[in-house]
Amino acid sequence: MITRPGENVDPQQVARAKEKLKPLNLLLKEPETASLSLLQLLAKCNLTLSEYQQCLNTINKSSAIILKRDPKDCWVNGYNPHLLEAWDENIDVSYILNAYSCIIYITSYITKKESGLSEYLKRVIENSSRDNVNECDEMREIMQEYSKKREVSAQECVTRACGIHMKKCSRGVIFIPTDDNPVKMSLPMSRLENKTSECPNVWMTSLTDRYKARPETPEYEEMCLADFAATCRIVYGQHTKGKHVMPLLNEMGFVER
Q1: Are residues 153 and 223 located together in one domain of the fold?
Q2: For the chain, how many structural domains are there in total?
Q3: I want to staple 152 with a disulfide (CB 3.0 to 4.6 A). Which of 73, 156, 167, 190 is the partner?
Q4: 10-49 burial: b if 16+ Cβ within 10 Å, else e
Q5: Range of the domain at 108
């Protein structure tokens, strides 16, 4: 079921809807309700299915998915049975109804604060003040501690300590720049300092550059950029002496199919 929030909902209506659903929330915590169906559960709370749906529409501020499941499974995360069998790990998936909400969720997740790190840095600053350290050494110490410390959850800590894989993937991902003005990486500052201001060669060799310099053989000349990225790899050092290694044009390195 998809709940649809109403327009111009009165706060008193929201309060009344929450009051009606309160007995239902309390009843779900009782062990004896595990064997009841949804209709039996609603009957114990003097609610009809239509009243239940109306209450959900009233209290929700945005559209939401209400999964069809037994009351005993109300605390189970959303999952897909086929993905669960293939992944063989915990899954918590949600059907997206609002692209903006999805963007907000992702942005909030990757920018969430690490309160533990903030408290740790405060202690470092306090200790530096007590030790009469000059400002330069104090900033250096704070910088080192900030770069080495990170707050992690208990789950991530156990996963890393036990050497458990945090993700599994049977496919590699390669970014292929295809824009008219693609993103480029500049050379390191140590190499740029030795170049004159008129020198145009300030960019690192990209995948597109290597594709344009692919060997002049029928095998490579008929190859598109996507196939080149998927089936070829750039080799270095001793690997350049391999049996199937070919030199790129313009001395851009060596490639192996």
Answers
A1: no
A2: 4
A3: 156
A4: eeeeeeebeebbeebeebeeeeebeebeeeebbeebebee
A5: 78-112
**Does 194 reside within a domain?**
no
Which token pair is 39?
């209709």
Q: Where are the alpha helices (DSSP H) in 96-174?
A: 99-110, 115-130, 135-148, 154-161
Percent of the chain with pLDDT over 90: 10
- Enumerate the β-bridge partners of residue 3: 64
DSSP state of 195: S
Q: How far is CA 64 from the centre of its chain?
A: 22
Do residues 130 and 138 make contact, with C-beta atoms less than 8 angstroms apart?
no
Low-confidence ranges of the chain (pLDDT < 70): 112-118, 129-131, 150
Could you tell me if 88 and 71 lie in one domain? no
Q: Find the DSSP H helices in the chain.
A: 11-28, 38-44, 49-59, 81-87, 99-110, 115-130, 135-148, 154-161, 189-192, 207-212, 218-221, 225-231
Tell me the pLDDT tens digit for each residue of 39-50.
Answer: 888 888 889 988
- 62-87 pLDDT, tens digit each: 888 888 877 778 778 888 889 888 88
Q: Phi/psi at 27 (nearest 5 deg)? A: -70, -30
Q: Contact at 8 Å (CB) between 239 and 216?
A: no
The whole-angstrom distance between residue 205's C-alpha and the CA centroid of its chain comes to 29
Element (H, E) at 33: none
Same domain, 56 and 106: no
